[in-house]
Amino acid sequence: MNKQNFLVYYKDASIYIEKMNNPACVSAFIRCMKICIKNQLHRVKIIVYANTVFPNACLPISGIIQFCRNHYKIDFEINIPSRECRPYLLSCGFEKPYKLTHEQISLEQNPFDKIFFYNDSLQVSALTQSYINAISRLSECAKGVIDGLIWCLNEVMDNVLVHSDCDEGYILVQYHPTTKHIAICIFDYGIGIYRTLQETKHEPKTEIDAISLSLQEGVGDGKGQGNGLYGLYGIVENNAGTLTVTSGRASLFYKSSQPLKKYVNLPVIDHNHVGTIVDFQLNLSYNIDITTIFKSIGGFDGFDVRLEDMLTENDYYMYDVYKHCSGTATRESGRASYNDVLNIITRRNLPMILDFSNVHNVSSSYIDEFVAKLVVKTGFYKFNQMFRIIGMNSTVEHLCNRAVAMRIYDEWKKS
Asked: For 40-99, what is each residue's pLDDT tens digit?
């Protein structure tokens, strides 16, 4: 029996997963799968006892299962006795990732905690839009965060399609409301960064050298500008986040205020499909200075099709409250509308019309959490500069006026 730090181990044609919360679990799982392949097993049982599940372990292990199923024709039986993670692994697509068209992805209201398979640029665009739409409603984000997310998601997912030589990838994103950060992992089982750069002028000597080069400006294989991972690294560094890039037998880890950590001699499943894992976390409360990061490569506009659809000829946003809300009956829905509107204004600093024409009824808690909180947050002067409300019926208007008055009174009492 081979117990690799008791994270993941092999015994009797079965792989036992005790933990699924860090990259070491992935290396241990690969070692176990190599035993299965060496023994020419056609059926492998996986038993998961893990209590917590993070993207940097869950996604690569799921992707490796898909690769071994397709490439080595191994049949997997997955058993999840753990009460803590069983519901999560069953719903996230651990055994069978979500394979949706870009039209289906665009309808996803909550894309978090799901493993998505993608193999074309339309799916990349739809996934990126779905993630930023969802995070805009879930959390008040610091300046530059959502635009930074657009770059990171688009560029890293697109890298898989352009450079990996396998034309397909997997992504898993978790949102952690308590710590206000977002964890993202993207995986492919392609040729790896080293082979991608091997025939270029950069001529990396080792796999860790190739990863280090890929984080520099303008380094690529000629199929793009070579700024994808450079921009990602700049955003993570500026945000005091974390980044791990693992490709083939090498891995590089960055954490704010710490020296880069490099790891070598990691296991791989197949020498022709060494794979790449890009795992990063961003703090939603920390500003990202997009202008400074992209100054040397011509800037970045953070294109967002939803915002473009709202923008009028007169350079203000027409925000259809009914269209963009998740209901108007609860405080939670009001908080989502508040977050969404505030994030849009933070990103673009253009005036906005809040259109209530299609809203017939609201609860007091919804309008308090949305409009009244927005008035207090921005102040009367700025609110009147930035917002105009249209289309409220008399009932909604009455509840709104009352909510604003009560919240202002409560704030006055606190002071």
From this structure: 999 999 999 999 999 999 999 999 999 999 999 999 999 999 888 999 999 999 999 999
Q: How far apart are CA 234 and CA 227, in angstroms?
A: 10
Distance CA 268, CA 249 (A): 6
User: Between the CA of residue 343 and those of 142, 182, 290, 312, 366, what are the distances in Å?
Assistant: 8, 16, 16, 18, 18
Helix H, strand E, coil C: the string for the chain is: CEEECCCEEEECCEEEECCECCHHHHHHHHHHHHHHHHCCCCEEEEEECCCCECHHHHHHHHHHHHHHHHHCCCEEEEECCCCCCHHHHHHHCCCCCEECCHHHHHCCCCCCCCCEEECCHHHHHHHHHHHHHHHHHHCCCCCCHHHHHHHHHHHHHHHHHHHCCCCCEEEEEEEECCCCEEEEEEEECCCHHHHHHHCCCCCCCCHHHHHHHHCCCCCCCCCCCCCHHHHHHHHHHHCCCEEEEEECCEEEEEECCCCCEEECCCCCCECCECCEEEEEEEECCCCCCHHHHCHHHCCCCCCCHHHHHHECCCCCEEEEHHHHCCCCCCHHHHHHHHHHHHHHHHHHCCCEEEECCCCCCCCHHHHHHHHHHHHHHHCHHHHHHHEEEECCCHHHHHHHHHHHHHHHHHHHHHC
List the strands of the sheet with 8-11, edge to edge.
Answer: 2-4, 8-11, 14-17, 43-48, 75-79
Closest to 369 (Cα-Cα) out of 412, 346, 399, 348: 399
Whether 31 and 2 have beta carbons less than 8 Å apart is answered as yes
Express each pLDDT in 100-124 by its tens digit. Answer: 999 999 999 999 999 999 999 999 9
Q: What are phi and psi of 51, to 5 degrees?
A: -95, -30
Torsion of the alpha carbons at 3, 82, 109 and 179, rounded to the nearest 10:
-70
- Encoding tokens for residue 374? 């927005």
What pLDDT is recorded for position 3? 45
Strands laid side by side in the 276-283 sheet: 98-99, 116-118, 169-176, 181-188, 276-283, 242-247, 250-255, 261-263
CB 138 within 8 A of CB 177: yes
